[in-house]
Amino acid sequence: MFAALFGSVEQGIIYAIMALGVYLTFRVLDFPDLTVDGSFVTGAGTAAMMIVLGYNPILATFVATIAGFIAGCMTGILHTKGNINPLLSGILMMIALYSINLRIMGLSSDSGVTRPNIPLLNSDTIFTSFNNFWSGLGIDGVLSNLLKSLGVQAIPSTWGVLILMILVTVIIKLVVDWFLKTEVGLAIRATGDNKRMIRSFSANTDSLIILGLGISNAMVALSGALIAQYTKFADVGLGIGMIVVGLASVIIGEAIFGTKSIVRVTFAVIAGAIIYRMIYALALRVDWLDSGDMKLITAVIVILALVIPQIVSKYKEKKRRARRLEERMAAQHAKLEIEQGGKNLA
Q1: Rounded to the nearest 5 degrees, what angle is found at the Cα of 86, between the Cα atoms of 85 and 89?
Q2: What is d(CA 341, CA 168) in angstroms, rounded to the nearest whole number?
Q3: Handedness of CA 110, 111, 112, 113 (dihedral sign)
Q4: pLDDT of amino acid 346
Q5: What residue ranges of the chain have pLDDT lower than 50?
Q6: Cβ atoms 21, 245 nearer than 8 A
Q7: Percent of the chain having pLDDT more than 90?
């Protein structure tokens, strides 16, 4: 159980970067961006292709992030300059990216033709490089002994991946918090709230939408590049349903931790991604469920995350109305008693 939850937390933190990207488009820009399903694979495929060709994993991850940024910008251009519906723009870009991703992954083969997957089993990645440094510190042994003393049987082989991803995700969260408070970030937030009002201030909303979509898909591609290196493979089907996973993370996080400030929301999104992965891991341990039910589990989690807050909100509203009715009745009763007392004195 501990090993399963530990692995789900590791993956949850990596997917949290993708969820932050989905939050930018879904909540901030109010843009239903289905490019995510394609740009996630673009990041994974680009990083895997470059690593197989012998490039440094850090450089490969950076280039993958840039590729995601370009993909997001293309969706924005289709919408703003081509006047295509936001949903359709994302769908068109997602379809186009499927073929582009096959071509990108095909560059890792001698023939240069399309390729559906790239294994990284014998390749150095960001995680292997960091684990080599981390193992030299001897912290894994201390933590393992501590867990054994607490009676934990399944001890993780290393804590390096978790520590590295916590550092990377926290840095990205702080950058997103800072960016959304800058002049450009505030303009992007205002564009999502009321595009006409921002245009009346002579702001170029087209550029803001393109930039917002680019940044969002850059984070999605970065998450894809890290997942490919974490799982040691990149596959063209890796991104199917990824937008739903991102939305589930955002909705779960907001429902549990609230949305009172930007700092709180970005934290909620990260926590939502981790909670989603933990629920997912626990669901897969149910005897009558297997890996083929993954999409069904995802859909059920999203439905519960959407429906439960509404039920709780209606229940609270019902209690508030009942309390206000009791207060009004008590006030009327007190008023009648005072009036009756006055009549008796007269």
Answers
A1: 85
A2: 72
A3: negative
A4: 63
A5: none
A6: no
A7: 38
Give, for 235, the enclosing helix (H) or strand (E): strand 233-235
- Side chain identity at residue 121, one-letter code: L
Q: Which amino acid is at 193?
A: D
Give how far Cα 178 sits from Cα of 154, 166, 175, 186, 218, Å: 39, 18, 5, 10, 17
* Position 123, amino acid: S
List strand residue ranges (DSSP E) for 74-195, in order.
Answer: 117-119
pLDDT in tens, 106-123: 888 877 778 888 998 888
How confident is the model at residue 244, as a pLDDT? Answer: 84
Gap between the Cα atoms of 228 and 22, Å rounded: 19
In angstroms, the CA 259 to CA 49 distance is 39
Q: What is the pLDDT of residues 129-176, one digit of tens each?
A: 888 888 777 777 777 778 777 777 667 777 888 889 999 999 999 999
Distance CA 87, CA 114 (A): 28
Asked whether the beta carbons of 201 and 177 are under 8 A apart, the reply is no
CA–CA dist 55, 283 (Å, integer): 38
Report the alpha-carbon distance of residue 151 to residue 31 in Å, rounded. Answer: 48
DSSP-based three-state secondary structure for 233: strand
Place of tokens 């995680």: 127
